[in-house]
Amino acid sequence: EAIEIGDYESLPSSTYAVGFAKGYARAVGADEVAIAAQVRDDVGRMSRAAHYVPYETADPSRVPSRGIAIFGLGIALAVVILAALWFGTGLFRGGPATEAPVIADSGTTEPVAPKPAVVPAPTPTGGQVILAATDEVWLRVYDADNKTLYIGTMKPGERFEVPASARDPMINVGRPDKLQVTLNGAAMPPLGTGERPIKDVKVSGEAVSARLAGRTVAAGPVQTTQPVPAASGVAIGNSVAAAD
Question: Is 190 among the domain residues?
């Protein structure tokens, strides 16, 4: 079909086109020599056709000459040097300007009492740490002796008060983004994104206070539904409902 319409550029090569034309002429009973010569001549004319991309010459009036460019560069350098001398050394400004003397006011001025220094409120280092569930979350609370204070799955709204007497309490939590840790009502930043469980997170008053010192987050409302049930005598401490 490509040979019939003269589309030789779509064929692999001129040799292939001539050979295919001879075979086709032989198959239909035509003069294969004449057909091959015609195809060879057509392919030769196409290969001799000039293919070029027009080259657009630059307009000389738009391109500055080399001399103008060098002159402009010299002017720019001179301006920079003069500006540096003017502002840096005062070479062209003469001597330093003499400031006018300040005449003291002879009137009596009342003394101004100094303002008291503002002392930032210290972050509490102790207090009640509460673990509140914003959604269903598995939680284990234990102390430095690995003694379990609480273990179980908390329902949304349930919370657990970490005993103040616990020694260096820590938690393991399955979904850290669903657990809110507060110290005296101030919420600690989220423990994680919830992509994976975390463990051995300290939740003592001192540890939570240190985190709050870096970033204070207002405690969000947690609707309490019921107290956390004791898990077979494992939970220690008060499990209380949120105040109305």
Answer: yes
At a CB cut-off of 8 Å and minimum separation 6, what does 184 contact? 124, 127, 128
In whole angstroms, give the CA distance from residue 75 to residue 14: 63
What is the domain count for the chain? 2
Contact assessment for residue 240 and residue 161, using Cβ atoms and an 8 Å cutoff: yes
Tell me the backbone φ, ψ of residue 140, rounded to 5 degrees.
Answer: -130, 130
| Residue numbers of the domain that contains 18 | 2-48
In a domain, 232, yes or no: no
Question: pLDDT tens across 178-231, in order?
Answer: 999 999 989 888 888 888 999 999 999 899 888 888 754 444 444 444 445 444
Closest C-alpha to 141, from 66, 237, 49, 221: 237
Is residue 103 domain-resident? no
Q: Give the separation between CA 233 and CA 6, rounded to whole angstroms.
A: 94
